[in-house]
Amino acid sequence: MKRYITSNIIKDLASKMVFVGGPRQVGKTTLSYQLIKSDQTSEAYLNWDDTFDRKKILAGEFPPDQKIVVLDEIHKYRLWRGLVKGFYDKRKSKHSFLVTGSARLDYYRRGGDSLQGRYHYYRLHPLSVGELLNSKQEVDIKRLLKYGGFPEPYLLGDDRSWRRWQQDRVTRVLQEDLISLEKVNEISSLQILIDTLPSKVASILSIKSLAEDLEVAHSTVKRWVQILDNLYFSFRLSPYGAPKIRAVKKEQKLYLWDWSSCENEGGRFENMVASQLLKYCHYREDTEGYRMELRYIRDTDKREVDFVVLENKKAIFAVEAKMSEENISPHLKYFSQRIKLDKWYQVHLGERHYEKDDIEVIPFVKFVKKLGLP
Q1: All domains of the chain in start order, with CATH
Q2: What is the DSSP letter of 65?
Q3: Most buried residue among 114, 151, 208, 217 by CB atoms closer than 10 A?
Q4: Which tens digits make up the pLDDT trace of 196-214?
Q5: Of 220, 235, 227, 225, nearest to 180 (Cα)?
Q6: Which of 226, 319, 328 is nearest to 278 (CA)?
């Protein structure tokens, strides 16, 4: 299956390096092999975690007959940016460089000279309703909701495989990514935090409450949550401060890149919608250069709408996620009368599609198709 950013990457590799970040096991390696036109081990694919590949990278030994060279997980090297800059400046006429990693490559800028102007950065997301639709694949919304959008568990569609995959992913995030990138001594406490976060999905995240439960300092938990964001394990949304409402200012909502680990179905569906909208924002930002933001609406009286999408600081549409197709959210009605947006949507898993009071109630799959989301 051709991933949704493949064509953009190929185009950009003709003139610059391309960085691809994304959660572990989201499909970056498979995408890399597709780009170098190999489905087996290739000398053009070099992984920093492999001892032999590491030696080749440090020595600058690349296959002369390969146009595209993939450098995977090289951000774990302290001076990686300076090393990659040297490769690009000296060899850009011979090689195109694709740098991939299971962490935010824009965050881990350890040492070296600036790479500004030498690369384009993409964030690879899990499979989504939009990507499946655009790839002419069958969309099994129940399967996607249950097993998540990571390719392996979704394609296998098996409870046993999904459980084993989840355990393996968390273990590798802790043991391979976190330890190599961050100075964290209390791994066992961070494991407890990871186990706790699925119950916090779609709700206001209280760092103070987490700190009390884990019996660690507030600053420590705050740093841990930021680390998990940087490793593409979780993401947080900030409130949208519209002028005509008394909006909350600092409270953030938490979601996971793997929505299948959410404990209840309602939270899982809301997380899946959040992931689809975040994917849309990142795609437009990475490919077109727009400044996109995904936020939520909440006032001091605790009225709330799940999501609002901003383009260049201007709110363009809002989305409320509900399992049922019945009854429009009263909060959606309240805010739609006070905030001027192009469109207000309420998405659901049912079949009804209708409009009332300038609010469009629409099945989630139809909503994604209508907006052409990736």
Answers
A1: 6-123 (3.40.50.300), 129-371 (no CATH)
A2: T
A3: 151
A4: 999 999 999 999 999 999 9
A5: 227
A6: 319
